[in-house]
Each structure stands twice: as structure tokens, then as C-alpha cells.
Amino acid sequence: MAYSRISDSNEITARYMDSILIKESLIDSVVADTSIELFGEKFASPVMTPAFSHLKQFNGRELTGLEEYSIATKNLNILNFVGMMENDDFKKIINTGAKTVRIVKPYADNAKVRDQMRFAEDNGAFGIGMDIDHIFAQDGLDVVVGELMAVQTSDRIRSYIESTKLPFFVKGVLSEKEAKKCAELGAKAIIVSHHHGRLPYAVPPMMVLPGIKKALEGTDVKIIVDCGISSGADVYKCLALGADAAAVGRSMLPSLEEGGIDGAEKFLCSVNDELRFIMSCTGFATVADIDDSMLVRT
Fold first, then answer.
1. Out of 54, 134, 195, 196, which one is annotated catalytic?
2. Given CB 3.0 to 4.6 Å as the disulfide criterion, which of 5, 8, 109, 272 pairs with 45?
3. Cα–Cα distance between 255 and 59 in angstroms, integer?
4. Which residues pair with 297 in a beta bridge?
């Protein structure tokens, strides 16, 4: 076979994910329980939503896609994430009743960052955070929907964390070094991600999970992972490699666009059902029990 270079991080990630296979352990196993506890709250599943932004109404429906999948997470009792939006739109998300983490962009307008974080806390967000993987573009600093981004120093990140009583999530961690820095700054959670392949040749999040897990030993920092996750098997592998939870991504969009709230619920349930099935087939009764002993790397 001729050698060809692949710079697409999403394809690299998919190939790595698919290279991990699963053994069975059936004797003495039970129907698994997928529930988890996170920051004092019990959730039905470690399957979470991505921090989508700018989803409008699909197929002429009244609610935006962001509101629809938020309602789905409320109905299923799973943790919800949303991304870049103005405060009035975030208020609509909170009004759905979903337990929601607001991920704020690293705006050059620091007053806007702080205003959005304060608004989230004042209006009942479950957590707040920042996606640091949207700081840079190839020609310098990133511009997202007309908004200039800014470099984020350790001191600035620490100041965000210290300004809130909510759990702070740093999204876009992709190395042991960065994970340790987040812990030192006081973050309560990290999201291991390459933001759908923004960085060419980015390491697959699953590949660095074991190292990040080891780097965070002795801390209480939670590890969430995303990028290319579309099935219960993907979630299971993430958990086995060290994550506490995993977020589906664009794989949810077709179901959401076609079926709205019901479509999102069915998709999320199918992912969790497959996770439960695989846990049961590999001898793990709870999410906390899962380790990498049933994985085979090919």
C-alpha cells in the first residue's frame, strides 16, 4: 500500500479510536449502572453534550437547536454544555431547566468574558469555563463571528477561577503539561479536546488520556473528553483510558436537526444504552469500576 500523509486530525483521531478493541468478561457480571456523580450532583450517564454555538431553528421549528438539545439533557438528566452566545440566549438555555456549563470564548474584550461568566453564575449555571483552543489562528489571533480573541495567561485564568463559586472547566487541553497547569490554577475540570481538528496532526484525545489521568493523580480535577465520539463504544474507551465522562459532538446533529428534542433524546439514549451493554459485557457494574483491562490496542 502506498504511503500517504494524513494531516486531518479528525481522521487521525477516528483511526486511533477504531484501533482499540474490547475483550469480554461475562461470568459474574451484572446489568451495569451508568449513573455518575459530578460536583455533588447525580447524573444518569457520563454521556454529555458538546458546547455547540450558533444553532438556529431547524426545519422551521420554534426553538433553536441549542434549546432543543438542552431540553433533551434535562429530560435525560445528563450534563449540558453550550458555547459562544450572548447573555439573552444563555438565559433561554437556563430557562429550559437543564444543568448547564457555559463555555465562554477567550474574547479580547475581557470585560465581556467576565460579564458572561458573572451572568452565568447569577442565572443558575452548573459551571462555567473557557475554550482556550480558540485563541490562535494561522495568521495570529483568532476571530470568531467577528469577535477578536486574546492570549490567556496563567494569571488571567486563575483570576477567572477565583472569581466564581462554580466549578471551572478548561476546554481544549491536549497534553499532560497543560492538564497539570490547569490543576495548579484551580480548575475543577478539563475537557480534553482538539476542537474538531483545529490543529493539524493533533494527537487523538484518547491517546493522551492515560498520561493526563496519571498527571492529575492526587487532585480532584475531573476529566471530560470530546472529538469524534459517536457511540457507546467510544464513550466506554474514553472511560477505560481515564476520563470521567465524554461528550458526543457533531454525531448528534443529524438526529437533532431531523427530530428536535425527541431526536436528540433518542440519539443520547442509544449512546448510553450501548455503553451500558458494553459495561455489562466486560464485567464493570458501575462507571467508577471501569479500567483499561478489557482493552486491546491493535
1. 195
2. 272
3. 12
4. 20
Judge contact between 141 and 151, C-beta under 8 A: yes
Q: What type of residue sits at position 76? A: L
- Residue 134 falls in the annotated catalytic set: no
Q: Are 104 and 46 in contact (CB under 8 A)?
A: no
- CB contact at 8 A, 181 and 189: no
283 φ/ψ angles, rounded to the nearest 5 degrees? 85, 20
Contact between residue 285 and residue 33 where contact means Cβ atoms under 8 Å apart: yes
- All domains in the chain, ordered by first residue: 9-297 (3.20.20.70)
Distance CA 4, CA 39 (A): 45
What share of the chain has pLDDT > 70, as a percent? 98
Number of H helices, E strands in the chain: 9, 16
Dist. CA 157–CA 188, nearest whole Å: 12
Three-state secondary-structure class, residue 38: strand
* pLDDT for position 66: 98
pLDDT of 5 higher than 90: no
Q: What is the pTM of this model?
A: 0.96
